[in-house]
Please model this.
Amino acid sequence: MSAGVKKSPLAPDAFPALPPVAGVRLAAVEAGVKYRGRDDLMLAVVGEGATVAGVLTRSATAGAPVLWCRRQLQAEHRPCALLVNAGNANTFTGEPGARHVRQTCEAVGAALGCRPEQVLAASTGVIGELLPVAPIVGAVPQLAESLAADSSAWARAAAAILTTDTFAKGATAQAAIAGQTVTVNGFAKGSGMIEPNMATMLAFLFTDAAIARPALQSILADANERSFNAISVDGDTSTSDTCLLFATGRAADAPAASADLDDFRRALQAVMTDLAVQVVRDGEGATKLITVEVCGGEDDRAAMRIAKSVANSPLVKTAIAGADANWGRIVMAVGHAGQRVDPARLKIAIGGVPVTDHGRRIDDFDEAPLNRHLGGDEILIEVDVGVASGRARVWTCDLTRGYIDINADYRS
Amino acid sequence: MSAGVKKSPLAPDAFPALPPVAGVRLAAVEAGVKYRGRDDLMLAVVGEGATVAGVLTRSATAGAPVLWCRRQLQAEHRPCALLVNAGNANTFTGEPGARHVRQTCEAVGAALGCRPEQVLAASTGVIGELLPVAPIVGAVPQLAESLAADSSAWARAAAAILTTDTFAKGATAQAAIAGQTVTVNGFAKGSGMIEPNMATMLAFLFTDAAIARPALQSILADANERSFNAISVDGDTSTSDTCLLFATGRAADAPAASADLDDFRRALQAVMTDLAVQVVRDGEGATKLITVEVCGGEDDRAAMRIAKSVANSPLVKTAIAGADANWGRIVMAVGHAGQRVDPARLKIAIGGVPVTDHGRRIDDFDEAPLNRHLGGDEILIEVDVGVASGRARVWTCDLTRGYIDINADYRS
Model:
């Protein structure tokens, strides 16, 4: 978090107290990769026998750490640690960039007594500049010596990975698996899908549950669809998006392979959705959190495309910024999505106030509650496209002068 | 064009002098549909034996005039006239909206002695309000009596269809068909894909060439791909986009069915591209015209998707607004397009200055010419994704505070 940057008006009151997760220890340090006077390097260590699952950016220009993580996840190595730096994305750096990821992971492996392939890595910050290896490698021993498991270690780790974020983002939940209570902690960074010279979103989740990798991967991918894949600040996709879930198994005496994981799915979804919405709350220039709920789609995927079309429409986002009940722009964005819509049954409500029905404006609806809602900082747009039963929910933020000021800055 | 609105800094010096097109007469009048003190209703009449082709918005919430045009084009009626009003889009108006289109076309048919199905219609302006029929029907006789074919009639017609445009948009070209010279005139409106409460782009083209409908349709659709379908102001799609091409056949003694139309294709492409770029030059808040040229794509369609991804990226558009050589954002947008890219061969040039090659930044390139280029008001971004030989060119404009001011206006 850059010094002197004003915290988002949508920020939560405080960073939550994250409880220890058996088997997880963390540390952060100022390595001086880019920032001064703040931590910018984070190490998380998981005990032996842990499993890991991940979802990574689909960008065709993904960064070197993303390519490294993809390889190690596919090889299904047992995870040992996670190393994250802020300020340099190590993206579009060619073969040297890949070599630098390996060198930093080798340093962690040497300090912890594991193979480099068991170390996952993530970097965000400026694109196209080589990652400075020396300060990172030099800081690893200090990180390895200062590992801790308490709440302050979690808070410090969450702060160390921030770039242009205006607040640290964390969440926690508990779940019951086969009668046993497990914990899910998570923290994330991201000031929108995009940032000036930066790219972009990271989310790390840790649980003491014992879950085999195939199940862990499917649970993560499923929860990701309704959390991080359901947010948008401006429709741009980063080259570094990384979401990793580590399961240490330290809470479980018996493997949970056969156990019912529904409550764990619920808890993980709650943590990931909480973090995803916090990322939107830190969207560049955001003054309003917008929730778009679509029903009546041909299927859930069609509903998601329509919801994304509304959430990504500059026309809709600027109208909300102006507290303008401009539902005609929502009609446009729905029609623009390229999905089946029944215009004669299209229903739109803003803040719970129906504004259209049967393909027409509802004449003389009460504008007072609508305008009160639009004056607030949490906006709800509900759309029923009247085709079938597909549903989706997307979170975004308004598009303001602040966004332009941040991104059109000559000095960026 | 609203009174007192400042003309776009990218506007051409003047509206071009459009020569007569044999068989075409036009008239405009102040019908008082929405605006006061300006023409807001335009009638164009084509002689007997004319043919017409059209491309219409793919929006699932298309306006009533679009649905009317689609039906008449499919029925392949001989065109008689075109009626266009500004200020009301007659969109999302249900069955009454469709009835109102028919009533206005019946009035034109009665005045000209043709069937209503031979009258095409277009409306842009506010969405969701019923089109006031009486002032339009009442103005039709006056329009029918004041039809003219000279340059001033063309200029007045082009001005009558404007909404929030800051200047009228026209273009003309000549072509040789079988040794005979034909003329192509066109005019368009649109202040971007979107406007405050408005929607949006119309383009009307007229030629005295004799071209049968199937050929005319394929020529128009082809030219449209590289003109109006290759521009974007903000990625939003209007509910009213309509592009019609009328061919009167009055220049030709013999039908041109067998004639070589390549020169006509060239002339039509020139007129449509000219008009399309003028629409971008009138983009809301635009201060810079941006041309994105992509080569090396898997095919032309893949190249177009990549070019659109760059052209629609708020990150890229705000960087250009800030005259910031932020090529990392172009890398992001290229990767975001979901098309095949070879990162190791990705080349990016801005203003002809190569900034990346072989998947890496070009170290110590000369920034002086680059910054001179970015300081100007016409920006060129060239991208080679290094896969195959697919090419595309897209025109867009920068994203500025002016865009936010226009679209987030409380009073819109």
User: Anything to note?
Assistant: Chain A touches chain B through 67 residues (CB under 8 Å). Chain A has a mean pLDDT of 88. The CA atoms of residues 285 and 405 of chain A lie 8 Å apart.
